């Protein structure tokens, strides 16, 4: 059990790598000598030991009194405690205690440092545990956080015999999607979303929930059942057995789209919040980092690709347009209804935390939008730029969508897109228009054949 958020720092648009953790575990299992216990040339002089001084405060015992052990995790113990003095005097808190003796490799130390950094950065979100402070002494590291006294979701599921109404489920799912989309925007991936890591703030039925355990504990589990992952990869979700026959079609579609095996076709957390099953005008839509990625790619694409995306945008469904309108409003358009690079930069700044540094996705994607510094983008073009083509491809009506988009180009019923029609779509005119479009098409065809 852990009460701190699980760690995984996300690099731009790539899944997190477990390579360093696997290597560290293999070293441990194979009995490789530990750093700090290897002598040079058979002598007694030791190699440089791991530096386990984190620079945290040393006065934990003076500020907090441990009350009760709550659980044991892979990397440490979790206690309830009370403040002895200061702002948290007599207030209940949770303390995760990590023994320095368990930090046997450099990766363990890096993970713990990053965990504390992440906790400090995202602590302000209402559905994440509030981080108070980190301490250390010669033997342990102490991470002090908010205490949730309502138990976890797995306890609630057990107490209620696994029975929740759709409305009760929505209440929990909305809160989790809100915090997950916030983390993704910061470049953080949780990697261990499960009922045990969803805590209730109190025992009431209307208690809010908080996502916990971003720490290093549990990333690699030796007791994981074999064969389960392969079975999941091969199987499709079934909705024949109870309770699915009585579940609404919207809820089933929501689950199907979250379980899509192709991660590029799967809904993002922000998109999931805009799904019809969860649609709620009172629930603000979070900023979707993928929108930035798509707009950046669009602005650096060939005119032919841009024209194709414009055609596809003409056949977006009303639900898709509602979602894009919500994302466009988050950019706070100017009085004339346009946005520029500054709007994108300001939107990111409003939601950014300290974890979003120069190595995060934001600077790289915003640099791809450089052309917007000198021009405006209106909602119609935003739809063309932000369109999720892979999502459209996954839809059962993809062929009809492409056919309709093609008809947008094709004007004369001869099933051929003329250079003149491309000129019209690309807003290119003048004596050199046809030769320019011909060159664009030739270059695109040549690039696609390489």
TrEMBL record:
Keywords: ATP-binding, Kinase, Nucleotide-binding, Phosphoprotein, Serine/threonine-protein kinase, Transferase
A Pfam family recorded for this sequence: Pkinase
One example GO MF annotation: protein serine/threonine kinase activity
Every EF-hand domain range: 319-354
Domain of life where this protein originates: Eukaryota
Binding, ATP: 96
InterPro entries xref list: CDPK_Ser/Thr_kinases, EF-hand-dom_pair, EF_hand_dom, Kinase-like_dom_sf, Prot_kinase_dom, Protein_kinase_ATP_BS, Ser/Thr_kinase_AS
Top enzyme category: transferase
Record EC number: 2.7.11.1
Transmembrane segments: none
Boundaries of every Protein kinase domain copy: 64-446
Reactions mediated catalytically: L-seryl-[protein] + ATP = O-phospho-L-seryl-[protein] + ADP + H(+); L-threonyl-[protein] + ATP = O-phospho-L-threonyl-[protein] + ADP + H(+)
Entry's family note: Belongs to the protein kinase superfamily. CAMK Ser/Thr protein kinase family. CaMK subfamily.
Protein name (record): non-specific serine/threonine protein kinase
């Amino acid at each position: 059990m852990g009460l701190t958020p699980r760690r995984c720092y996300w690099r731009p648009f790539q899944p997190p790598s477990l390579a360093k953790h696997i290597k560290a575990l293999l070293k441990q299992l194979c009995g490789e000598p530990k750093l700090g216990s290897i002598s040079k040339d058979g002598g007694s002089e030791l190699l440089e030991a791991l530096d386990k001084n984190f620079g945290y405060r040393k006065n934990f015992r003076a500020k907090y009194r441990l009350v009760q052990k709550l659980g044991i995790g892979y990397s440490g113990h979790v206690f309830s405690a009370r403040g002895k003095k200061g702002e948290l005097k007599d207030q209940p808190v949770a303390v995760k205690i990590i023994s320095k003796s368990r930090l046997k490799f450099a990766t363990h130390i890096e993970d713990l440092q990053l965990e504390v950094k992440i906790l400090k950065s995202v602590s302000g979100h209402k559905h994440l545990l509030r981080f108070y402070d980190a301490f250390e002494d010669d033997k342990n590291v102490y991470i002090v956080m908010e205490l949730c006294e309502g138990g976890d979701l797995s306890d609630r599921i057990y107490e209620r015999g696994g029975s929740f109404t759709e409305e009760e489920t929505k209440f929990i799912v909305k809160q989790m999607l809100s915090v997950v989309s916030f983390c993704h925007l910061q470049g953080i991936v949780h990697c261990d979303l499960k009922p045990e890591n969803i805590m209730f703030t109190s025992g009431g039925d209307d208690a809010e929930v908080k996502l916990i355990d971003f720490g290093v504990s549990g990333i690699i589990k030796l007791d994981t059942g074999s064969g389960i992952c392969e079975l999941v990869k091969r199987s499709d979700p079934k909705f024949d057995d109870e309770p699915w026959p009585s579940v609404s079609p919207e809820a089933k579609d929501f689950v199907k789209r979250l379980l899509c095996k192709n991660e590029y076709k799967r809904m993002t957390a922000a998109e999931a919040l805009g799904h019809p099953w969860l649609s709620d005008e009172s629930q603000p839509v979070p900023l979707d980092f993928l929108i930035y990625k798509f707009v950046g790619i669009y602005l650096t694409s060939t005119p032919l690709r841009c024209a194709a995306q414009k055609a596809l945008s003409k056949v977006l469904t009303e639900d898709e347009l509602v979602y894009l309108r919500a994302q466009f409003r988050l950019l706070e358009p100017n009085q004339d209804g346009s946005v520029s690079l500054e709007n994108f930069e300001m939107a990111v700044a409003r939601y950014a935390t300290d974890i979003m540094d120069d190595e995060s996705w934001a600077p790289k994607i915003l640099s791809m939008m450089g052309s917007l510094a000198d021009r405006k983008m209106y909602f119609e073009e935003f739809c063309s730029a932000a369109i999720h083509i892979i999502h459209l491809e996954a839809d059962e009506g993809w062929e009809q969508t492409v056919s309709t988009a093609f008809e947008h180009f094709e004007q004369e019923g001869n099933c051929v897109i003329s250079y003149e029609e491309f000129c019209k779509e690309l807003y290119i005119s003048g004596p050199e228009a046809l030769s320019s479009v011909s060159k664009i098409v030739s270059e695109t065809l040549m690039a696609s054949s390489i």
